[in-house]
Fold these 2 entries.
Entry 1:
Amino acid sequence: MDISSKTTMKEMISKYNIYPHKKWGQNFLLDKNILNKIVELSRLTSEDYVIEIGPGLGTLTREIANRSKGVLAIDIDSSLEEVLKETLGDINNTRLKFADILKVNIEKELTNAFNLTDSNKTYKVCANIPYNITTPIIFNLLENYCNMEYAVLMMQKEVALRIKALPGSKAYGLLTVMIQYYANVEYLMDVSRNCFFPRPEVDSAVIKIIPHRPRKFKLKKEDVFKSLVRRAFQMRRKTMINICAVEFGVEKEKIREYLVDLDIDGNKRPENLTIHNFISIAENWPVAQEENLN
Ligand code: SAH
């Protein structure tokens, strides 16, 4: 069955009375070429287990299943169960779970779904995700799981550009720095809004997120770093001197000297700092201010 053809998809939608929910980002992928490309770029092998977030009608699920050992597809919308039973009925290596991806433990679910004996089995993630929860999905994958090899995710293009942005550009921000903290990112391709039903108001892009293994940055003061980066981009028009003065509750003159010692120009704005600059500010900050600032 080719659900990615517009005619078949519309038949399924009317047969099962599906009303695409905006709140769950339900825009179904229609284009066979794009589907194939996503799966090719995911470099799956017949040994791979794959987790798909939000299978929808099962279009991408079928392609992943054809090229992997098994797919666990997790969707929040249990009313899709009937249609998925039909669209995936002829495939025996898919498992469905109806739950909120942000609330289940995907590694436990994978182990259970395929009766894996190794609870540390690695897996890949491949998905056209619900765009309204892109950021929580990515951080959930990066912060809470350790067996994921990488994730190939389709998302709103504007968000993909922010993730991949370079210092000095408008798109560079909290998301860029925080994802870089955990992972490398590859921008794979753009996808037009015309490839979906219903047609969304934004274009899309596919990116690959590869967590650093082992972790690239092991910070003593991770909390200080995270809080500083968050503050910096909340105040992105201010200079780093002003931002650090607020964040650390210390006079600007002291901050200026502190940044000079670290070889960072305190008059720069956060969008001009690299992740290494932020790390250096956080890691060198004395726990007790009296230690060496006075
Ligand atoms: N992958 C399909 C559908 C994409 S639409 C395709 O490409 O055609 C996004 C899907 O994510 C929908 O099926 C929606 O029900 C599901 N979804 C939305 N929020 C979710 C959540 N919190 N957890 C799991 N799935 C979710």
Entry 2:
Amino acid sequence: MTADPTYRGFALDAETALALLQWQAELGADEPCLDAPIDRYDMPDRAAPPAPAAAVQAPLALPEDPAQDHAALAEAMAAGARTLAELAAAQEAFDGIDLKKGARNFCFADGNPGARVMIIGEAPGEEEDRQGRPFVGRAGQLLDLMFGAIGLSRQAVDAERALYITNVLPWRPPGNRRPEATEMAMMLPFLRRHVELIQPDLLVLMGNTPCMAALNRQGILKLRGQWTEAFGLPTLPMAHPAYLLRTPLAKREAWADLLSIAARLEP
Ligand code: URA
């Protein structure tokens, strides 16, 4: 915004400027802009991304179909990551989906990597995109309360009480739209490797998107509460906390699911 005290003919006192900003936020604007709009999907790629970890730098032949090329690259980069730090570096460097261009921050994971419970959500929202951490907005606050009620926390140092949290996608889809099947498929090798490196005792799939990615199934209201297997581990689908915020009555079933997790963790 310029120092000009008017904006398109309106007097721009502090109150008007604040009202204008709030209105723009309600319309979905989530960052300040220049005078002319920028289409980030039509920009040359950003400055060179951080080099992937040494183990994943092997040059790969370029097949003709760029999507296949990227899929093969994702497999190779994920498989080559020997540690979480290498996986994060490889995933952040991966250029195979456009979401990366529109996101502010790469959002890898949060919590204690030694945790027995690993939660997989959908994708970063606005607040997660701002902070570069999963589940830190309203839904994330509810998620913390829910798991706190059975004695689990992402801050816990003790692995018995700890949570580890990630998402199917590490970049925010524009306007919080649902991830597309091609985006999920492209990032799946990273998620699989993520689970292998964490080696939790059990997985929790939050909502339809991780059920689609990990189980190739959807219909969370039917899937929730039924233990199944994903990536070779006991897995419980649960309703997403964003859904619970909109549908408080569903919290009763979520509580039953939390108790089922607590029971499963008992020695
Ligand atoms: N919803 C998700 O599924 N993941 C987040 O990180 C935030 C909201």
